Amino acid sequence: MFKEKFSGGIISAKQFDREDIEYIIKKAKEMIELKNSNILQGKILATLFFEPSTRTRLSFESAMYRLGGSVIGFQSGDVSSIKKGESIADTIRTVENYSDCIVIRHSLEGAAILAAKFAKIPIINAGSGSGEHPTQALLDLLTINEEVGPLDGLNIGLMGDLKYGRTVHSLSILLSNFNVNVYFISPLELKMRNRDKDFLQQRQVKYKELTDYRKILNILDVLYMTRVQKERFVDSEEYERIKGFYIFQQEDLIQTKNNFRLLHPLPRITEISPDVDNSEKAIYFKQTYYGIPMRKALLAELMTD
Amino acid sequence: MFKEKFSGGIISAKQFDREDIEYIIKKAKEMIELKNSNILQGKILATLFFEPSTRTRLSFESAMYRLGGSVIGFQSGDVSSIKKGESIADTIRTVENYSDCIVIRHSLEGAAILAAKFAKIPIINAGSGSGEHPTQALLDLLTINEEVGPLDGLNIGLMGDLKYGRTVHSLSILLSNFNVNVYFISPLELKMRNRDKDFLQQRQVKYKELTDYRKILNILDVLYMTRVQKERFVDSEEYERIKGFYIFQQEDLIQTKNNFRLLHPLPRITEISPDVDNSEKAIYFKQTYYGIPMRKALLAELMTD
Amino acid sequence: MFKEKFSGGIISAKQFDREDIEYIIKKAKEMIELKNSNILQGKILATLFFEPSTRTRLSFESAMYRLGGSVIGFQSGDVSSIKKGESIADTIRTVENYSDCIVIRHSLEGAAILAAKFAKIPIINAGSGSGEHPTQALLDLLTINEEVGPLDGLNIGLMGDLKYGRTVHSLSILLSNFNVNVYFISPLELKMRNRDKDFLQQRQVKYKELTDYRKILNILDVLYMTRVQKERFVDSEEYERIKGFYIFQQEDLIQTKNNFRLLHPLPRITEISPDVDNSEKAIYFKQTYYGIPMRKALLAELMTD
């Protein structure tokens, strides 16, 4: 069922209902146990990164290799024929002849949708502008599930750049499938966009918007922080003014519950002080670890019969 | 025989006689049928791309992986020691110690010849300036063979930038081994160079030069279009003036024969209108597909005993 | 023993005593004989190159593939999250979740030490600013051992940029474990730094400093030349003035002993004239060959139980 539903790929968190999420988390947990698999031997993953990436690209590639597959691709649009003026549609209709699945990251919000429209093989959206980043959100849910517990009933704060941050867009959409209390914490200039809030309202998600995270730190089970997305600002002065708005520090941890956990999709700039890193409540590096089993699970679903 | 003749690699289309071409096309057809091969397991292909590429690099890499081999290399001269001032000869004499075959693309026309002069392992020319691109021409012939039919007797138009376009140089050389009628269609400024025409005359190829493709559209079996090579123009104003000289459109198809097929090595900029893409006469994306079996065949010949 | 001692990785030549060097050279010799190994199948090497490289990166990757493993990584800091402002420590704590060993090259001298401090998997220093490049020095010793003979008693000249050249720093440290006579040959501006000489004095290494290599050419067994490191000069005029200080030419060979051998870590710019390349005394390309067995040996030690 998952295989059929997602045969075109993973483009948006909106494709997922609760059953899909629970299924892929179960599969990802199986991948944690799995050693030395060759189930994707002979398969080729294409990773087309028009924007820089460390985590997403390397974790997809690692996941592919851990399952016995191979990888082709590029790390920057500068070295591809895009530089000669080629369209995304043409690139996709070419690369689909060389591979079994395409992972694409692009600065344009519609890039992954466009790619999926033209492709005969599955497309995975690895970040489309300030739009979405659905596989990141799936690994975030796996992390919460494994490190905090079942989602229903949790108080979850999403904090930072809620306007341009694609990971929080996809995460809030996935969370709308669960009975959670969501807190959107941001400077006024970086509030969650109306189109995203409208979607949550339709799904009757309980959410609150606020600016000062300290007010609710004692009730949160999860705080998901994000970086202010420098590359999305047109005005670099506004970026400079806002980037240091939040700095989560060791003393903030004192007010938090015992089972409180701090997540971040990384990279982190200054928004979490390094003295927080050694707390067992800080699980953002563990979070990167969960990217491997989740991506192994997704790749296996999309490329096996 | 092929193996011995090409033990130094594939540098120029001029190395190929009719027998060689028919042999490698036969081998490429066998590769279309072949699934899950490991005949190049343990072998390493080095892909040294000093100029940007999507199709050529990724299809060589895909072909290598499909045969069980591995790939090392770089996608841009900027990340290699060339940036520190190293010569091509030194790079080659180094990389030959790390790999079993080297694929090289470079902006200088003599780069592949120079590389082959110094290398003890086979070199494949994946595009040398505006000189040649022989493996592209081989996959073009495979495409025509499979999608149109035997070459002898065909009316074939090569159109666009015949001066700087390396793919048409190699293709016209390969075609000189067959009994074809060739039409060179270009703006006056981008005519086939004398040195290339002299070669065809020596081989008694029947060709005509013209500017307006519409005059012969009704007799062509194959029209092979090319992009105006922006990166070869010294004068950007001249490029801007000429780049839109030809735009093949849906209405052009009406005049063509039933078995007419439109090819393009891609990337395509504006020279073929997107409304042509869905015609069964437009086979430029299928053409990228034939790159895999042709390159699998070539790699297998060059790296197995 | 080696495995335990180096379980954190290869950061500095100072980690090695004579026994360690002899052990890893023995292992590298075994790798020369070894064909088609799969001892690192299922393992992943991460190659994080923040500075350009041809030899080091490609030879690590080739060595990894020759042992059946896989490789992820990047060839330039520009395509990673470092560009978004991420710290090395965060990058390492991420990538260690995707791989079994990390190879790092960085322009900062302390980068590899910092990486090792944060990593739970082995780190290999593949060049840290003008500091060290220990695996290059190990392959240099393997080359001398195989092509000249046992190290004790040899007269070895290190010539060129002894101030900024990281390979000569690591090599002189390794040589301090043997009973060799070392000659440091450089322009006055590029002399070996005091901190490096102090280390050799502590270890009672016999060394002399001079400027004119011709004075001792007749007694040398090995001359190890290096490139003037353009990228380390703050003042480009000073670089232009000094870069042509030494040019080793064919006529220099006349004065050398029969068993004299000329090494160079490459890339070579103008400091060795190309007419020297064909002499059997010039073994710098053979030297690149020895990079594969040495790196195979190191990777096998660090990634097998």
Task: Write a structural description.
3 copies of one chain form a homotrimer. Chain A has 11 helices and 10 strands. With 305 residues, chain A is α/β, with parallel strands linked by helices. Chain A has 2 domains: 2-131 and 291-303, Rossmann fold; 134-288, Aspartate/ornithine carbamoyltransferase (Rossmann fold). A 5-stranded parallel sheet of chain A has the order 1-5-4-2-3, sandwiched between helices.
Outline of the structure:
Chain A is of the alpha/beta class and 305 residues long. The first copy, chain A, has 11 helices and 10 strands. Chain A folds into 2 domains: 143 residues, Aspartate/ornithine carbamoyltransferase (Rossmann fold, 3-Layer(aba) Sandwich); 155 residues, Rossmann fold (3-Layer(aba) Sandwich), CATH 3.40.50.1370.
In percent, how much strand structure appears in the residues of chain A?
Answer: 15-25%
At the third CATH level, what is the topology name of the largest domain in chain A?
A: Rossmann fold
Report helical residue fraction of chain A.
Answer: 25-40%
Which H/E pattern describes the elements of chain A?
Answer: HEHEHEHEHEHEHEHEEHHEH
Identify the quaternary structure here.
homotrimer
Number of domains of chain A: 2
Name the chain pair with the biggest interface and residue counts per chain.
A-C, 28 and 27 residues
| Classification by helices and strands of chain A | alpha/beta
Global Rg of chain A: 19 Å
Question: Can you tell me the CATH class of the largest domain in chain A?
Answer: Alpha Beta
The count of helical stretches of chain A stands at 11
Q: Give the overall shape of chain A, derived from the CA principal axes.
A: globular
Mean pLDDT of chain A: 94
The poorly predicted ranges of chain A are none
Major β-sheet profile of chain A? 5 strands, parallel
Termini separation of chain A comes to: 12 Å
Which sequence of strands runs across the widest sheet of chain A?
Answer: 1-5-4-2-3
**Count of individual beta strands of chain A:** 10
> What is the CATH architecture term of the largest domain in chain A?
3-Layer(aba) Sandwich
Q: What is the CATH homology-level superfamily of the largest domain in chain A?
A: Aspartate/ornithine carbamoyltransferase
